[in-house]
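During the second half of the funding period, the structural biology subgroup turned its attention to how the target accommodates small molecules. The most pressing case was DGJ, which had performed well in the primary screen but for which no bound structure existed. We therefore specified the complex as follows and requested a full 3D prediction, including the ligand pose.
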Amino acid sequence: MRHFLVVLITTFGLCAPLHAGTHYDAAKQTFRLDGGNVTYVFGVNERGELQQIYWGPRLGEKDEVPAAKSMQEWASFDDSYNNTPQEYVSWGAGLNYEPALKMTFADGNRDLVLHYVSHKASDDGFDVVLKDVKAAVYVTLHYKMEAGSGILSRSATIENSEKQNVTVEQAAAAAWSLPRGHYTLNYLTGRWAGEWTLNQEAVRQGARVIESRRGSTSHQANPWFALQAGETNEESGEVWFGALAWSGSWRITVEQDTLDTVRVTGGFNPFDFGYVLHAGESLETPVFYGGYSKDGLGGASRLLHRYEISNILPHRTEPVAKLKPRPVIFNSWEATQFNVDDEGQMALAEKAAALGVDRFVMDDGWFGQRKDDHAGLGDWYVNAQKFPHGLKPLIDKVHTLGMDFGLWVEPEMVNPDSDLYRAHPDWVLNFPGRDRTEQRNQMVLNLARPDVRDYVLGFLDKLLNENDIAFLKWDYNRNWSEPGWDQLPAAEQKRVYVEFTRNLYYILDELRRRHPKVEIESCSGGGGRVDLGILRYTDEVWPSDNTDPFDRLTQQDGFTYAYTPQVMMAWVTESPHWFNHRATSLTYRMLSSMQGSLGIGANISKWTPEETALVKRLIGEYHQVQATITQGDLYRLISPRNGSEFSATQSVSGDKSQSVVFAFIHSTQEGRVFPRLKLEGLDPQAMYKLRAIEGPLAHGTPEVASGAWWMGHGLELSDISYDSTVSFHGDFQASAYRLDKQ
Ligand code: DGJ
């Protein structure tokens, strides 16, 4: 067992490497982690608690870090236990703040005080073992810092070595402490069709809770935060940030204590939580990733993007440079809704191929007795009226046209009007004898049950064995209600909050293992299940059902604070848009979507030859610069938020050989002119050649200039004239440019 593997610290000498970039100072009992431009230090204080000492810019190699020493009490009301920032503080000894861990013992005791026991190197980082001062409850904290970015991953394993059960009522992955100071908290919230709103507010004393109680990640809030110190802006100033890798109910609490220390604690949502640990059992928390940047929110998101590409996404064993850009897809949903059939989809496939699309995806409607959203979920056989000879003829046709084939599924759901529900009404989340709430006429299968897990894995495996499918769009269109699991004793039913998500990950992992070439998108009625947990098993996500190209500018802006454009799918759809009736040009729609991983979701059978030619040309352009846009360094030059009249982004390839700029005019008043764009991240010495992918350039703009020019002087898109060949003006206008190193 972990805690018996006590490290003989004396054999390490005074300051020994535990792991690359990690040092343990035996004399002071401090742990120091260095990676990228970041140093993180914690130590064992004089009481035996694990205390955070430093998190910030990288310190000098020879710098002496002081030993941990608990904070003093503040009169009799804020004692030292409360004032001392611990790495993983438990609820006991009078703690008044958010605990990382809280539990109830069989005898009713609820006091838990964790002290350091030992540490040891692990495969890819190191572990520190804590133990309650009395009971045989152990907590192993796992640490791993990435050398390039300084992003630290933290999680905990809670082990019950008592003879009796204990019930874990609250378990965080980690708690982060920041230096005392004034901070602005950034976090993402939303709703269906309105995800990815960036909120910015001053941190004050008390707690700010961002969470999902909905059983999955949710549209309502996303498990990411960034705290800016003092006067920070997009490209400068100190930022501490973090993201939780969990696709079930979660909670992040940002709390400023009475003495102004800021702590961020995140993990399983304690609401309705209660995980019974039998003697000898343990509970593994999700991972909480944390990072630091001195280059503002832009620097923080670039670190996260790179980390996601190299450490989180599948195919992570390949060098980053080799991660495939996403195929340009066509998706049938907005074109045909549930009315899919052989003939209609084949006609769309022909049109899609003519545009230069790489992947044809058939969305909802192909299975069971699915005519609308009232029936069919759960019955994953091909609908014989719509596809009399199965999916093969359509898939063959798609292949003949030079594309691969993707298919929509919603594996965790069931309609009451389905063979599956008629056979297994007990398979859904429910409390026996109580009503079962339906949303979109569907219920949630209890994936925590082993038989349900096996059923879901079984039908997906069969589907992939029997059909040449390259891609699954995995949807999830409601939240939980009545989360009972009546197979288990009453006291243990709340395990559902952990086991459901674990089984989801298991199925995804197993499918990938059995079908290594199949790619998967995480969709949940748009962006309801996007987090670093699901991204370990999925290649892309659907950020929102709102595909209006103007709304998407703000959504995509918010999305990129936490997630890389590599995974950000963006479809070009119809105008006027179904959601808000806004009319926009096809060029505008294309350029808005080209900021992420491009897809076409319109009814392309209606497109004119001119529209087809325009889209074909822009897909061709996109293919040439896609790796820079989706895997390069993103600079948000002008924010679309807060009613801005303009917005602009710039992406720079890792080797600085290429850059792509997107500029948008929303709606201007009083003739305001598009601002000159001072570019970022280029090699100042190198010469770059400018070319418009689409859009005007002001008089006198050089064709070739140095990186220093583009960054110092900037890119001028407008003069004051009304000549659209030299001046970028109007409402809902878009332009795009590329710069290539000479
Ligand atoms: C919700 C998704 O977000 C849409 O893209 C579409 O797949 C529908 N579900 C299908 O029911």
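Two results from this model are relevant to the next phase. The mean pLDDT is 95. The pocket of DGJ is lined by residues 333, 363-364, 408, 475, 477, 523, 525-526, 542, 545 (CB under 6 Å).
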